[in-house]
């Protein structure tokens, strides 16, 4: 199986790296946009119910957009990891790869937790429990999004370091 991925990566290396870089840029860009552009717009909406509804609508679209991006990013990372033979690389490179994998594992779990909080907020909105909706949305927007942004930037830096550029 490993030989297959090495051969596959050898044949499609440019496409795989391109998909990896584009999906990483989309992920980091989308987190940046949420934190620094969308959040201030939502804060300017005075009607609390309208603000929460718009925020939930946005998060619903965001999660539908970001899931395929993350799947492409993780798949490309996995193919690059096997195809480039990082397990046979120097101990420092191998350590960097494992650290990057750990960061991504945490990112995936954090996105899962964000989605779970979004579902809780959506359910609370249907019962008109606006306090619960607000608490879930505040946690996602104020804490989890910036944490994911910092972790994704750290993972991107690690990726550049691993590639040796």
Q: Would you kindly provide a written description of the structure presented here, covering whatever features stand out?
A:
- This protein is mainly alpha-helical and 165 residues long.
- It has one domain (2-163).
- 90% of the residues lie in helices and 0% in strands.
- It contains four helices and no strands.
- Helix 1 packs across helix 4, helix 2 runs antiparallel to helix 3 and helix 2 (48-83) runs parallel beside helix 4 (130-163).
- The longest helix has 42 residues, at 2-43.
- The protein is elongated.
- The chain starts with a helix and ends with a helix.
- The mean pLDDT is 89.
- Biggest β-sheet, characterized? none
**Secondary-structure element sequence?**
HHHH
What share of residues is helical? over 70%
How many distinct domains?
1
Oligomer: single chain
Intertermini distance: 29 Å
Residue fraction in strands: under 5%
- Structure class: mainly alpha
How many extended strands?
A: 0
Radius of gyration: 19 Å
Overall average residue pLDDT: 89
Task: State the low-pLDDT regions, or none.
Answer: none
Taken from the alpha-carbon principal axes, the silhouette is elongated
Secondary structure tally, helices: 4
């Amino acid at each position: 199986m490993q030989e297959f991925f090495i051969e596959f990566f050898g044949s499609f290396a440019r496409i795989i790296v391109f998909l990896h870089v584009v999906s990483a840029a989309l992920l980091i860009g989308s987190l940046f946009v949420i934190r620094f552009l969308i959040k201030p717009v939502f804060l300017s909406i005075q009607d609390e119910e309208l603000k929460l509804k718009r925020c939930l609508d946005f998060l619903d679209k965001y999660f539908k957009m970001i899931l395929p991006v993350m799947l492409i990013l993780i798949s490309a990372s996995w193919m690059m990891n096997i195809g480039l033979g990082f397990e046979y690389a120097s101990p420092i490179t191998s350590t960097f790869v494992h650290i990057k994998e750990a960061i991504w594992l945490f990112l995936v779990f954090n996105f899962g937790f964000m989605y779970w909080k979004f579902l809780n907020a959506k359910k609370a909105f249907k019962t008109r429990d606006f306090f619960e909706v607000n608490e879930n949305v505040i946690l996602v927007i104020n804490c989890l999004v910036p944490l994911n942004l910092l972790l994704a930037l750290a993972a991107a830096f690690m990726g550049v370091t691993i590639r040796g550029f």
